[in-house]
Design brief:
It contains 15 helices and 14 strands. The chain is an alpha/beta fold. Strand 1 and strand 2 form a beta hairpin.
Length: 396
């Protein structure tokens, strides 16, 4: 079966077509600047170099039409028609408590995703737009929603509840949900495979570090705690998001800066994190370049980020009563050796020792800890699309 995987953002549409017989990527790409002018598509077939082409994409439905044109016609074609697509898997960020696994999309599922919009205001709306656009193009193909929150539904109540009046949880489902679940699940399983261990015997801490970042404690193959909470704003410092702050900070900002609640939350989501501290960028490549040039605020932003991740790893090691492996993944985790080294340098007390040469080597999935390190340290490229495709296949 060929599974089409969709990850819709507010102005983007990422996609992959995967042959599930051998899990090879037939084609993949991303539509950028959807609905905002100057739109274009990056597209590649199999292992070919990506090609970029301009295309008018005033909305996500137009983007989907362009993707299907690339997949089925001319020199870019990889299939004869959309009839060869057996199912479509959609990434959905927030599924609340209702969904602990992937589900076939119907009217009730769409309504449930809509109900979770207030919990993931930056993510669920574009996810819904992608579902609507794709179902309009392929109405007779089964569509499946795979939720970022589903993997974390195994967290125990003492880990996911907030210490606020209990009836608020009962009436409004206010609790920690966690995100990046497909990524954490994939790299934790991959780490067990690389170490030749049964996942049920391992305590793994997975660090999904990118513009959005979260750390997860995986004990026996299941999530037992994670840094993101009710929304993706909580947890470690991120590119533009503040991460965990004193809740009273919101009131203080509203009073001192004369901001309403929407302006305050927008600031915490879009103008904080390393961008807010550095005043330069949310891109760590820019920050390290600025630090090398002597910029003290860039250096401070980097230090605050790596410190927050180190603290999270230490806390989860304590929560699980130990750790066998630490995994780095996503844009920063996979590609930034300086960030990895800084984080692990604070974990020597638990027996994690980095091998600088291995850490500096480019490559795919690999062990970067030193021989004799009591805790294995690994770099594993995440593959959320493959997880979505597998979940979709299992249901359809």
């Amino acid at each position: 079966m060929k599974v089409f995987v969709v990850n819709a953002g507010s102005s983007s549409l990422k996609f992959q077509l995967i042959d599930m017989d051998d899990e090879t990527i037939i084609a993949k790409g991303v539509c950028e600047r959807v609905g905002i002018g100057g739109s274009f598509v990056k597209y590649s077939r199999h292992d070919e170099a990506a090609r970029t082409s301009e295309a008018a994409m005033p909305d996500h439905k137009a983007a989907m039409v362009e993707v299907m044109r690339l997949l089925t016609t001319g020199e870019t074609a990889v299939i004869g028609s959309t009839d060869e697509i057996g199912a479509v898997g959609h990434r959905v960020v927030h599924g609340g408590e209702r969904f602990s696994g992937a589900v076939r999309i119907d009217k009730d599922v769409v309504e449930a995703i809509v109900d979770c919009v207030e919990l993931a205001i930056l993510h669920n709306p574009p996810n819904l737009i992608g579902i609507d656009a794709c179902m309009a193009i392929m109405p007779n193909v089964p569509h499946v929603a795979v939720f970022d929150t589903a993997f974390h539904q195994t967290m125990p109540k003492h880990a996911f509840l907030y210490a606020i009046p209990y009836d608020l949880y009962g009436r409004h489902s206010i609790r920690k949900y966690g995100f990046h679940g497909t990524s954490h699940m994939y790299v934790a399983q991959k780490a067990a495979d690389m170490l030749g261990r049964d996942p049920k015997e391992l305590k793994v801490i997975t660090c999904h570090l990118g513009n959005g970042s979260s750390v997860c404690a995986v004990d026996g193959g299941v999530s037992v705690d994670t840094t993101m909470g009710l929304t993706p704003l909580d947890g470690v410092i991120m590119g533009t998001r503040s991460g965990s702050v004193d809740p009273a900070l919101v009131e203080a900002l509203m009073e001192k800066e004369s901001m309403d609640i929407k302006e305050t939350m927008s600031m915490l989501n879009k103008r904080s994190g390393v961008l807010g501290i550095s005043g330069i960028s949310s891109d760590f490549r820019d920050l390290y370049e600025a630090e090398a040039g002597g910029d003290e605020r860039a250096a401070l932003a980097i230090r605050m980020f790596t410190y927050s991740v180190t603290k999270a790893v230490g806390a989860f090691a304590a929560a699980m009563g130990g750790v066998d492996a630490i995994v780095f993944t996503a844009g920063i985790g996979e590609n930034n050796q300086l960030a990895r080294k800084a984080i692990v340098s604070g974990l020597g007390f638990m027996g994690a020792v980095m091998d600088d040469d291995r850490n500096a080597m480019p490559g795919s999935a690999r062990v970067v800890s030193a021989d004799g390190s009591r805790v294995a340290v690994l770099v594993i490229p995440t593959n959320e699309e493959l997880v979505i495709a597998r979940e979709t296949l299992a249901l359809t």
